[in-house]
């Protein structure tokens, strides 16, 4: 089974994708993570995309489609969760081609719907484990022991360069202008499901499980 998680920045795509990896053994393909890895590697492409990401704008279709195509070649097909991809109609068309060339398709598209007002506190309160990448939040998902990652025990945490109010405004603008048209695209293909992502994390996971089991 292959699914797409769509939603604005801070909707909970990464959080829910990681839960599905644990619960269902699916593979998370996050273009945001792949781009941050490229930045961390210091490659020419990584340096180029870092500035675009810090401004909250979209990286070119060519770069992200290339990253996904590379990952699909490595995938032992256990079911993929596309997290933050596709984000434009061109990316959606490319994904369809990449999948059908492999005899695969998208089974469910899940829109995580959240009020804009909730996103500021979700984004500005987010931090992640520097070692394993587990995502936390200052108030809604703190570590169980202060300063220690629940998953791997690391005591180092990071905050993202684009998790500022200014960059968030630009990211939201990109979402509404370039990504939200995909909701109509997948609705027309009868693949779209809407989940209320204002709810607390466990309830959102439950709603996603219900869609996947339907
Ligand atoms: P990307 O990394 O994809 O960022 P994003 O879409 O802005 O999404 P986020 O990762 O910020 O949020 P999320 O929905 O995963 O929320 P999370 O689970 O962390 O992209 C970053 C940049 O890369 C883009 O701006 C662009 O430049 C570039 N890029 C990436 N993909 C691209 C593409 N396809 N094309 C072009 N450019 C691309 O949750 C947020 C916080 O809220 C956490 O602290 C979490 O603990 C908390 N939380 C989660 N769920 C709940 C809940 N139900 N209740 C309360 N708190 C919650
Ligand atoms: Zn960790």
TrEMBL record:
It catalyses: AMP + ATP = 2 ADP. Its EC number is 2.7.4.3. Pathway: Purine metabolism; AMP biosynthesis via salvage pathway; AMP from ADP: step 1/1. The keyword ATP-binding applies. InterPro entries: Adenyl_kin_sub (IPR006259), Adenylat/UMP-CMP_kin (IPR000850), Adenylat_kinase_CS (IPR033690), Adenylate_kinase_lid-dom (IPR007862), P-loop_NTPase (IPR027417). Its main location: cytoplasm. It is an enzyme of class 2 (transferase). One of its GO terms (cellular component) is cytoplasm. Residues 126-162 form the Adenylate kinase active site lid domain. Gene3D superfamilies: P-loop containing nucleotide triphosphate hydrolases. Zn(2+) binds at residues 129, 132, 149, 152. Belongs to the adenylate kinase family. This is Adenylate kinase. The gene is adk.
């Amino acid at each position: 089974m292959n699914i797409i998680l769509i939603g604005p920045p801070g909707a909970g795509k990464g959080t829910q994708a990681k839960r599905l990896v644990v619960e269902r053994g699916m593979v998370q393909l996050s273009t945001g993570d792949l781009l941050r890895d490229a930045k961390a590697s210091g490659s020419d492409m990584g340096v180029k995309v870092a500035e675009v990401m810090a401004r909250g704008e979209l990286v070119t279709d060519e770069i992200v489609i290339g990253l996904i195509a590379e990952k699909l070649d490595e995938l032992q097909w256990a079911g993929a969760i596309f997290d933050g991809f596709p984000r434009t109609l061109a990316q959606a068309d490319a994904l369809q081609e990449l999948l059908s060339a492999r005899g695969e398709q998208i089974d469910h598209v899940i829109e995580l719907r959240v009020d804009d007002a909730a996103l500021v506190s979700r984004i500005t309160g987010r931090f992640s484990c520097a070692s394993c990448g587990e995502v936390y939040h200052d108030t809604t998902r703190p570590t169980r022991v202060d300063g220690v990652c629940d998953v791997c025990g690391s005591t180092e945490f990071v905050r993202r360069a684009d998790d500022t109010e200014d960059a968030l405004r630009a990211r939201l603008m990109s979402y509404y202008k370039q990504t939200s048209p995909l909701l109509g695209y997948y609705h027309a293909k009868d693949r779209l499901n809407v989940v209320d992502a204002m709810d607390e994390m466990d309830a959102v996971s439950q709603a996603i499980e219900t869609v996947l089991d339907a």
